[in-house]
Design a protein that fits this description.
Blueprint lengths: L8 E6 L11 E6 L5 E6 L7 H9 L7 E5 L8 H19 L6 E5 L8 H16 L6 H7 L8 E6 L4 E7 L12 E6 L5 H13 L16 E6 L9 H21 L7 E9 L2 H12 L2 H8 L5 H8 L12 E4 L2 E5 L2 E2 L12 E7 L5 E8 L3 H8 L4
Parallel strand pairs: 4-5, 8-9, 10-14
Antiparallel strand pairs: 1-2, 2-4, 3-9, 6-7, 7-8, 10-15, 11-12, 11-14, 12-13
Length: 385
């Protein structure tokens, strides 16, 4: 039941006509309390969509009553008219729920530049329809309504000691740091303050969504929200809750990776023995964003030279002639030179694991990415049409 698995939440997903397919495209998640705590993190892209600009204002006081999400249109670069659309969406939801519009988060996803009068009318009507259908069983429908190029919904639930965390996510392309082209809603019935919710969410996203780098492209509409109802009455151990939230976020991130547009390989890049975690992340990301490496993996070619060339562009501490590289368990590079023959590496499985040993420290980090395929190019060359 995803976001409605924790107590105190209702949700719905409906079709408002935003998608030409006729599939569901408006979702609403409502926090019935008793707590109305919220936290959110947003894309670091300077070009932010109207719902991001609105939600950044809403979240400042740490109070959230509900979140309205639409697929089928990003409402980005639609000017002041688009911002008013977001505002009116929050006002419509607030009116129907009997709460303040300043406590309603809004998310949009889809084609940039979409957000005219027809879009506005459908979003407002869809929000009204969804609120009329709210239920404690509505989490599945909500997770389906936020999909765009996704082939399947992404959901996750964790059961703690008397409390739960639920989550839903969408995203299949433009998965890059600073979040991705993703919308994520997380819910919990644990008892948390707004400060605790914010700290836990930032810690969890740092090691999950922010390390998913599918194609190096950063979206304008990314938002990860955490709603806290406190309906369990249980105040969790801080470390246990933070670990559980990171587990849910990591689960959703891997589901996003596995559904990346056109991908035929899910690549896990593990950087070990780095001088610092920052170095490990930088090295892993340099490989994740290297089109030559990604194209080689698509062709099942264990070209470790492309790995060394990629990490050589970073400022991380390491000696290029003392680096080891493993591909799917085979050490193909030792001390910056050839090791096992390339023929020993089997890259036909979808799951691909790359290990880079920098041999300079004790820090490590893992980055998730995908290969670069014909299907990815085709899908994104025709996305707007």
């Amino acid at each position: 039941m995803t976001v409605t698995a924790p107590r105190g939440f209702e949700a719905a997903g409906v079709a408002a006509g935003l998608k030409s397919s006729g599939n569901a495209d408006i979702a609403v998640v409502v926090n019935r309390g008793p707590l109305k705590v919220g936290a959110a993190v947003f894309t670091s892209n300077r070009a932010k969509a109207n719902p991001i600009l609105w939600s950044q204002q809403v979240i400042q006081d740490g109070t959230v009553e509900a979140i309205v999400l639409n697929s089928g249109g990003a409402n980005c670069f639609t000017g002041s008219f688009g911002f008013q659309t977001t505002h009116q969406t929050a006002e419509k939801a607030a009116e129907l729920l009997g709460v303040s519009a300043g406590d309603i988060l809004v998310c949009s996803t889809g084609l940039i530049g979409t957000g005219d009068e027809v879009f506005r009318a459908k979003v407002l009507a869809g929000a009204e329809q969804a609120i009329a259908q709210l239920s404690a069983d509505g989490g599945v429908a909500a997770s389906e309504a936020i999909m765009t190029t996704d082939s399947r919904p992404k959901r996750s639930v964790h059961e703690g000691d008397g409390w739960k965390i639920g989550g839903m996510a969408k995203g299949a392309g433009m998965l890059a740091p600073g979040l991705a082209t993703m919308l994520v809603v997380l819910t919990t019935d644990a008892v948390l303050t707004s400060e605790e919710a914010d700290a836990h969410l930032r810690a969890a996203t740092r090691v999950s969504f922010d390390r998913l780098d599918s194609d190096g492209c950063m979206s304008t509409n990314d938002q990860v929200s955490l709603l806290v109802s406190g309906a369990s009455g249980v105040t969790p151990d801080a470390e246990a809750f933070r670990a559980a939230l990171a587990e849910v976020c990591s689960d959703l991130a891997r589901q996003l990776q596995g559904d990346a547009e056109g991908a035929s390989h899910d690549i896990t890049i593990e950087v070990v023995h780095a001088a610092s975690e920052e170095d490990a992340v930088e090295v892993g990301r340099s490989v994740a964003r290297n089109n030559l490496f990604k194209a080689a993996i698509f062709g099942n070619d264990p070209n470790w030279g492309r790995v060394l060339a990629a990490i050589g562009t970073t400022e991380a501490a390491f000696d290029p002639y003392d680096v080891d590289v493993w591909m799917n368990g085979v050490r193909v590079c030792s001390a910056g030179g050839p090791d096992q023959p390339r023929e020993a590496v089997d890259l036909t499985p979808r799951a691909t694991r790359l290990v880079i040993d920098l041999k300079v420290g004790d820090a490590a980090a893992t980055i998730l990415t995908n290969d670069l395929t014909h299907d990815y190019v085709h899908e994104n060359s025709a996305y707007a049409t």
